[in-house]
Design a protein that fits this description.
Blueprint lengths: L12 E2 H8 L3 H10 L6 E2 L5 E3 L1 H14 L16 H45 L1
Antiparallel strand pairs: 1-3, 2-3
Amino acid sequence: MNEKEGYSEKEGYSMKQTVELTGLSKDTLRYYEQIGVLGPVARDRNRYRHYSQAEIDWLKIVKMLRTTGIGINEFVGRQQAGTRERREYLERYQQQIRENIEELERIQGVLSEKLMFLKNKEKIEQRS
C-alpha cells in the first residue's frame, strides 16, 4: 500500500492500513496508545481508530529506533513534545547511532584481522 492510497485527511488511516504501513501489530498500536508512546488516536462515531499521517510517521520512527535497542519507555510522551525537544531527542539518538557504528566498524576490523590470521595459519597447516 502506498502511504497516500486510501488516505483521507479528514478520516486518516484505518487500523488495518496503519498495520500495513508500519508493520506493527494491532495489539502493539493499542499498547503504544495505552502507555503514551502514541497520543490519543482520533476515533470515528463507531469508535474505530483513525491514524493521521503524522502518527504514521512517528510510529515508523519509533519502530526504526527500537531496532537499535532503545527501550519503549524512552518514547512515552515524546510525540507530544515541542519541535525543539523532538529535534534534540532525535539528535541525541543520531549521535548514539554514530558511536555504535564506529564501535561496530572497530570490531569488524579486529575480526577481519583475526580471520586473515586464521586463514593464513590454516593454509600453512594444510601444506605441512
